[in-house]
Design brief:
alpha+beta; five-stranded antiparallel sheet; three-stranded antiparallel sheet
């Protein structure tokens, strides 16, 4: 798309490729999730975009726009610099206090999502970005924010959209009642 420049690939998987990009109109860095799609995939991408667009919370990655070109969909998101919680856990980089602070923020994010009728259904360390930015919290605490991302299999529970069925998610992270 003429407005967005793709700069550096940040990651890839079964979903497609995520790029660091630049929005030339608004002159800001963005994350661009590029998906090669068929008709079913296009409706999944639109569901993800709609679910994420309902949410406005500092611990949830924001979506800015969705564009389609041929067999490609581009989801334009907030760019978060950092690393996944999974990578940080594997490297042993987190103290108990860090984990508690990150967990508290994620609980707040999930409560917000649920209030908006959105159930993520794939909360796992790989879907949490821990930012490189530190904030001064209340009481003099320094907080390293984390952001929940990838609402690709989220469901909207107001009856309009249930996504991939009741058993979607990563097996090791699904709620017991979801598996049952």
């Amino acid at each position: 798309h003429d407005r967005f420049e793709l700069l550096v690939p940040l990651g890839s998987g079964g979903f497609g490729v995520v790029w660091e990009g630049f929005d030339m109109l608004l002159e800001r860095s963005v994350a661009v999730k590029e998906l090669v799609v068929n008709d079913d995939d296009a409706s999944d991408a639109l569901r993800e975009a709609r679910a994420t667009a309902r949410l406005n919370h500092p611990a949830i990655v924001s979506i800015y726009e969705v564009l389609g070109e041929g067999d490609r969909i581009y989801m334009i998101n907030e760019l978060v610099h950092g690393q996944t919680l999974g990578d940080m856990i594997a490297a042993g980089e987190l103290s108990d206090n860090d984990i508690g602070r990150i967990g508290y923020g994620l609980c707040e994010a999930l409560a917000h999502a649920h209030q908006q009728g959105v159930v993520h259904r794939d909360v796992k360390p790989a879907n949490v970005m821990v930012t490189t930015d530190w904030l001064e919290g209340s009481g003099g605490w320094r907080v390293q924010p984390a952001k929940l991302m990838d609402f690709g299999i989220a469901s909207i529970v107001d009856g309009s959209d249930f996504g991939h069925g009741p058993h979607a998610g990563s097996r090791g992270y699904m709620a017991p009642e979801q598996i049952a």
